[in-house]
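User: Before I run my own analysis I want an independent prediction to cross-check against. Here's the chain; please return only the structure tokens and, at the end, one sentence I can use as a sanity check.
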Amino acid sequence: MRVALFLMQRGHYVRLGFDGGRYDISYFPGVDPLESAGAPPAGPRQPIKVEVKWDRRAGETGRLYFEVRNTRQNKPSGLASSNADLWCQVIGEDGRKALMIPVVWLLGWVRAGGESGRFSKLRTGGKDSNSEGYLVPLKDLLAEPKAKQVVLPTPQEFFGG
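Assistant: Structure tokens:
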């Protein structure tokens, strides 16, 4: 919800929900043409799809986990299967900060770091575990110009309550 509020603060028309379970939010840049006080629409616009993940432990560990493979089905998953345009990684237990990153760039960056040995490959443990991915130092991602860190509003801040 906070990611949607962040996008709405910037004048975007936001739609929550899943498209076949493939992404979480879509937004149209600018204001919804139906609510633009009678101004003519600027022409057809394509929605920007956003996948939202929340890594509650990243704030304390200083690392993010990016899933790229389902080991049980032996096929791409997580970041490697996303059809979203933007990846939004909410960081920390309080959910106040997030990174907004183009998916195509992020996937290439994570894979290159994994192949070079810069990032640790990890297979999640547990009884029903089927995830493989990379642990990425948060500081490394924050140093990249393509990764924009944002502060997410609370509903009270957004609605003025």
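Sanity check: The longest strand covers residues 48-55.
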